[in-house]
Model the fold of this input.
Amino acid sequence: MSTVSGSELRVHPDLHSASADLADEIAQILCTCLQSDRWCTLALSGGDTPRLLHQMLATDHASLIDWNHLHLFWGDERYVPHDSPQSNFRMARETLIDHVPIPADNVHPMPTDFDDPEDAARACEAILRAFTPGDVPRLDIILLGIGADGHTASLFPGSTALSEAERAVVPSIAHADPPHRLTLTYPVINSAANVFFLVAGEDKAPVVAAALAGASPETLPAAGVRPTNGRLCWWLDESAASLVDKE
Ligand code: 6PG
Done:
Protein backbone atom coordinates (compact mmCIF):
# COMPACT_ATOMS: atom_id res chain seq x y z
CA MET A 1 0.00 0.00 0.00
CA SER A 2 1.27 3.48 -0.81
CA THR A 3 -0.20 6.98 -0.69
CA VAL A 4 -0.32 9.71 -3.28
CA SER A 5 -1.67 13.14 -2.37
CA GLY A 6 -3.43 11.67 0.64
CA SER A 7 -5.09 8.84 -1.28
CA GLU A 8 -4.28 5.25 -0.51
CA LEU A 9 -3.15 3.18 -3.46
CA ARG A 10 -3.14 -0.59 -3.65
CA VAL A 11 -1.43 -1.61 -6.84
CA HIS A 12 -1.65 -5.19 -8.00
CA PRO A 13 -0.19 -7.06 -10.99
CA ASP A 14 -3.62 -7.56 -12.54
CA LEU A 15 -7.35 -7.01 -12.12
CA HIS A 16 -7.82 -10.45 -10.58
CA SER A 17 -5.52 -9.78 -7.64
CA ALA A 18 -6.79 -6.22 -7.22
CA SER A 19 -10.37 -7.52 -7.13
CA ALA A 20 -9.47 -10.23 -4.62
CA ASP A 21 -7.80 -7.71 -2.30
CA LEU A 22 -10.78 -5.36 -2.57
CA ALA A 23 -13.21 -8.20 -1.91
CA ASP A 24 -11.26 -9.03 1.26
CA GLU A 25 -11.43 -5.41 2.36
CA ILE A 26 -15.16 -5.12 1.69
CA ALA A 27 -15.88 -8.34 3.59
CA GLN A 28 -13.82 -7.14 6.55
CA ILE A 29 -15.54 -3.75 6.69
CA LEU A 30 -18.99 -5.31 6.40
CA CYS A 31 -18.21 -7.82 9.16
CA THR A 32 -17.00 -5.01 11.43
CA CYS A 33 -19.96 -2.73 10.83
CA LEU A 34 -22.39 -5.61 11.28
CA GLN A 35 -20.85 -6.29 14.70
CA SER A 36 -22.15 -2.87 15.71
CA ASP A 37 -25.61 -4.40 15.39
CA ARG A 38 -26.85 -2.24 12.53
CA TRP A 39 -27.31 -2.77 8.84
CA CYS A 40 -24.57 -1.83 6.38
CA THR A 41 -24.90 0.04 3.14
CA LEU A 42 -22.86 -0.63 0.02
CA ALA A 43 -23.21 1.19 -3.31
CA LEU A 44 -21.99 -0.75 -6.34
CA SER A 45 -20.43 0.81 -9.40
CA GLY A 46 -21.33 -0.04 -12.95
CA GLY A 47 -19.43 -0.82 -16.11
CA ASP A 48 -17.45 -4.00 -16.64
CA THR A 49 -14.53 -3.72 -14.21
CA PRO A 50 -16.47 -4.80 -11.10
CA ARG A 51 -17.70 -8.11 -12.61
CA LEU A 52 -14.84 -10.16 -11.18
CA LEU A 53 -15.15 -8.44 -7.79
CA HIS A 54 -18.86 -9.29 -7.68
CA GLN A 55 -18.16 -12.92 -8.52
CA MET A 56 -15.58 -13.10 -5.73
CA LEU A 57 -17.98 -11.57 -3.22
CA ALA A 58 -20.57 -14.14 -4.33
CA THR A 59 -18.22 -17.11 -3.95
CA ASP A 60 -15.03 -16.80 -1.87
CA HIS A 61 -16.54 -14.28 0.53
CA ALA A 62 -20.25 -15.05 0.56
CA SER A 63 -20.13 -16.94 3.85
CA LEU A 64 -18.29 -14.08 5.58
CA ILE A 65 -21.00 -11.54 4.87
CA ASP A 66 -24.30 -11.30 6.75
CA TRP A 67 -26.44 -10.59 3.68
CA ASN A 68 -29.57 -10.08 5.83
CA HIS A 69 -28.06 -6.90 7.23
CA LEU A 70 -26.54 -5.53 4.04
CA HIS A 71 -28.44 -3.03 1.89
CA LEU A 72 -27.28 -2.64 -1.70
CA PHE A 73 -27.44 0.60 -3.64
CA TRP A 74 -25.84 1.87 -6.84
CA GLY A 75 -23.55 4.80 -7.53
CA ASP A 76 -25.23 5.34 -10.86
CA GLU A 77 -27.48 3.72 -13.40
CA ARG A 78 -28.15 3.96 -17.08
CA TYR A 79 -31.75 5.09 -17.68
CA VAL A 80 -32.79 1.85 -19.34
CA PRO A 81 -35.03 -1.03 -18.23
CA HIS A 82 -33.46 -3.20 -15.51
CA ASP A 83 -33.42 -6.16 -17.92
CA SER A 84 -31.45 -4.22 -20.53
CA PRO A 85 -27.92 -5.49 -21.27
CA GLN A 86 -26.79 -1.92 -20.53
CA SER A 87 -28.27 -1.91 -17.00
CA ASN A 88 -25.84 -1.76 -14.09
CA PHE A 89 -28.49 -3.45 -11.97
CA ARG A 90 -28.71 -6.35 -14.44
CA MET A 91 -24.92 -6.77 -14.39
CA ALA A 92 -24.93 -6.88 -10.58
CA ARG A 93 -27.91 -9.24 -10.52
CA GLU A 94 -26.14 -11.66 -12.88
CA THR A 95 -22.72 -11.52 -11.18
CA LEU A 96 -23.67 -11.12 -7.51
CA ILE A 97 -27.29 -10.77 -6.39
CA ASP A 98 -28.63 -13.97 -7.92
CA HIS A 99 -25.86 -15.93 -6.19
CA VAL A 100 -26.12 -14.71 -2.60
CA PRO A 101 -28.90 -14.91 0.04
CA ILE A 102 -29.57 -11.18 0.16
CA PRO A 103 -33.28 -10.45 0.78
CA ALA A 104 -34.99 -8.75 -2.16
CA ASP A 105 -36.05 -5.92 0.17
CA ASN A 106 -32.37 -5.16 0.78
CA VAL A 107 -31.66 -4.51 -2.90
CA HIS A 108 -32.41 -0.95 -4.00
CA PRO A 109 -31.77 -0.48 -7.71
CA MET A 110 -32.06 3.04 -9.04
CA PRO A 111 -35.57 3.19 -10.56
CA THR A 112 -35.64 3.68 -14.33
CA ASP A 113 -39.35 3.26 -14.99
CA PHE A 114 -40.50 6.82 -14.38
CA ASP A 115 -41.39 8.86 -17.48
CA ASP A 116 -39.29 11.70 -16.07
CA PRO A 117 -35.77 10.86 -14.80
CA GLU A 118 -36.16 13.72 -12.33
CA ASP A 119 -38.97 11.80 -10.62
CA ALA A 120 -36.82 8.67 -10.61
CA ALA A 121 -33.94 10.56 -9.00
CA ARG A 122 -36.19 11.90 -6.26
CA ALA A 123 -37.67 8.45 -5.60
CA CYS A 124 -34.17 7.01 -5.43
CA GLU A 125 -33.05 9.69 -3.00
CA ALA A 126 -36.00 8.99 -0.71
CA ILE A 127 -35.05 5.31 -0.50
CA LEU A 128 -31.39 6.15 0.08
CA ARG A 129 -32.29 8.54 2.88
CA ALA A 130 -34.50 5.91 4.53
CA PHE A 131 -31.50 3.61 5.01
CA THR A 132 -28.65 6.00 5.74
CA PRO A 133 -27.95 8.40 8.59
CA GLY A 134 -27.26 12.10 8.38
CA ASP A 135 -28.59 15.14 6.58
CA VAL A 136 -26.28 14.04 3.80
CA PRO A 137 -26.78 10.28 3.35
CA ARG A 138 -23.63 8.51 4.62
CA LEU A 139 -23.01 5.09 3.14
CA ASP A 140 -20.55 2.63 4.60
CA ILE A 141 -18.93 1.82 1.26
CA ILE A 142 -19.21 3.38 -2.19
CA LEU A 143 -17.47 1.58 -5.06
CA LEU A 144 -16.46 3.64 -8.07
CA GLY A 145 -14.89 3.16 -11.47
CA ILE A 146 -13.40 5.77 -13.76
CA GLY A 147 -13.96 6.29 -17.45
CA ALA A 148 -11.18 7.13 -19.89
CA ASP A 149 -12.63 10.66 -19.94
CA GLY A 150 -12.27 10.92 -16.16
CA HIS A 151 -15.93 10.48 -15.29
CA THR A 152 -16.94 8.53 -12.24
CA ALA A 153 -20.37 7.19 -11.39
CA SER A 154 -22.32 9.19 -13.97
CA LEU A 155 -20.62 12.48 -13.15
CA PHE A 156 -19.30 13.50 -16.56
CA PRO A 157 -16.97 16.36 -17.50
CA GLY A 158 -18.84 19.66 -17.78
CA SER A 159 -22.04 18.18 -16.31
CA THR A 160 -24.36 20.37 -14.24
CA ALA A 161 -24.50 17.41 -11.82
CA LEU A 162 -20.95 18.32 -10.75
CA SER A 163 -22.19 21.47 -9.03
CA GLU A 164 -25.14 19.85 -7.23
CA ALA A 165 -24.68 20.69 -3.55
CA GLU A 166 -27.99 19.63 -2.01
CA ARG A 167 -29.55 16.63 -3.76
CA ALA A 168 -28.17 13.12 -3.27
CA VAL A 169 -29.27 11.73 -6.64
CA VAL A 170 -29.74 13.59 -9.92
CA PRO A 171 -30.24 12.79 -13.57
CA SER A 172 -27.24 13.32 -15.83
CA ILE A 173 -26.41 13.12 -19.50
CA ALA A 174 -23.57 10.99 -20.86
CA HIS A 175 -21.80 11.50 -24.16
CA ALA A 176 -22.17 7.78 -24.65
CA ASP A 177 -25.01 5.36 -25.16
CA PRO A 178 -27.33 5.38 -23.32
CA PRO A 179 -27.20 9.13 -22.75
CA HIS A 180 -29.66 9.38 -19.86
CA ARG A 181 -28.30 8.39 -16.46
CA LEU A 182 -28.94 8.71 -12.72
CA THR A 183 -26.01 9.38 -10.42
CA LEU A 184 -25.06 9.95 -6.83
CA THR A 185 -23.73 13.46 -6.35
CA TYR A 186 -20.48 14.64 -4.77
CA PRO A 187 -22.12 15.45 -1.41
CA VAL A 188 -23.17 11.82 -0.99
CA ILE A 189 -19.99 10.31 -2.44
CA ASN A 190 -17.82 12.52 -0.25
CA SER A 191 -19.93 11.77 2.82
CA ALA A 192 -19.24 8.01 2.66
CA ALA A 193 -17.16 6.23 5.27
CA ASN A 194 -15.22 4.37 2.58
CA VAL A 195 -14.85 5.28 -1.11
CA PHE A 196 -13.01 2.69 -3.18
CA PHE A 197 -12.02 2.98 -6.82
CA LEU A 198 -11.34 -0.20 -8.76
CA VAL A 199 -9.52 0.54 -12.02
CA ALA A 200 -7.68 -1.60 -14.53
CA GLY A 201 -6.15 -1.10 -17.94
CA GLU A 202 -3.60 1.13 -19.63
CA ASP A 203 -6.35 3.28 -21.16
CA LYS A 204 -7.21 4.53 -17.66
CA ALA A 205 -3.61 5.39 -16.67
CA PRO A 206 -3.73 9.06 -17.80
CA VAL A 207 -6.93 9.88 -15.91
CA VAL A 208 -5.86 7.97 -12.80
CA ALA A 209 -2.58 9.90 -12.72
CA ALA A 210 -4.36 13.20 -13.36
CA ALA A 211 -6.99 12.56 -10.70
CA LEU A 212 -4.32 11.76 -8.12
CA ALA A 213 -2.31 14.80 -9.18
CA GLY A 214 -5.24 17.06 -8.34
CA ALA A 215 -6.89 17.74 -11.69
CA SER A 216 -9.95 19.96 -11.82
CA PRO A 217 -13.18 18.05 -11.11
CA GLU A 218 -14.89 20.08 -13.82
CA THR A 219 -12.77 18.43 -16.46
CA LEU A 220 -11.95 15.24 -14.58
CA PRO A 221 -14.84 14.43 -12.23
CA ALA A 222 -13.06 11.55 -10.47
CA ALA A 223 -10.73 14.21 -9.02
CA GLY A 224 -13.72 15.62 -7.14
CA VAL A 225 -13.97 12.47 -5.00
CA ARG A 226 -12.54 13.70 -1.71
CA PRO A 227 -14.30 12.13 1.27
CA THR A 228 -14.74 14.75 4.03
CA ASN A 229 -14.75 12.18 6.83
CA GLY A 230 -13.96 8.90 5.19
CA ARG A 231 -11.32 6.78 3.61
CA LEU A 232 -10.36 6.97 -0.08
CA CYS A 233 -8.44 4.10 -1.64
CA TRP A 234 -7.63 3.24 -5.24
CA TRP A 235 -7.34 -0.43 -6.12
CA LEU A 236 -5.35 -0.46 -9.37
CA ASP A 237 -3.67 -2.91 -11.64
CA GLU A 238 -0.12 -2.02 -12.69
CA SER A 239 -1.28 -0.76 -16.08
CA ALA A 240 -3.75 1.72 -14.62
CA ALA A 241 -1.14 2.86 -12.07
CA SER A 242 1.68 3.14 -14.61
CA LEU A 243 1.63 6.96 -14.91
CA VAL A 244 1.08 7.79 -11.24
CA ASP A 245 3.90 9.85 -9.70
CA LYS A 246 4.71 7.80 -6.62
CA GLU A 247 5.65 9.92 -3.58
C1 6PG B 1 -21.20 3.20 -15.66
C2 6PG B 1 -20.34 3.46 -14.48
C3 6PG B 1 -19.09 4.17 -14.83
C4 6PG B 1 -17.99 3.13 -14.88
C5 6PG B 1 -16.86 3.65 -15.73
C6 6PG B 1 -15.82 2.55 -15.96
O1 6PG B 1 -22.42 3.19 -15.50
O2 6PG B 1 -20.62 2.96 -16.73
O3 6PG B 1 -20.74 3.39 -13.30
O4 6PG B 1 -18.76 5.21 -13.97
O5 6PG B 1 -17.53 2.85 -13.56
O6 6PG B 1 -17.39 4.06 -16.97
O7 6PG B 1 -16.44 1.53 -16.69
P1 6PG B 1 -15.62 0.18 -17.05
O8 6PG B 1 -15.39 -0.52 -15.76
O9 6PG B 1 -16.54 -0.58 -17.97
O10 6PG B 1 -14.34 0.63 -17.71
About this structure: The mean pLDDT is 96.
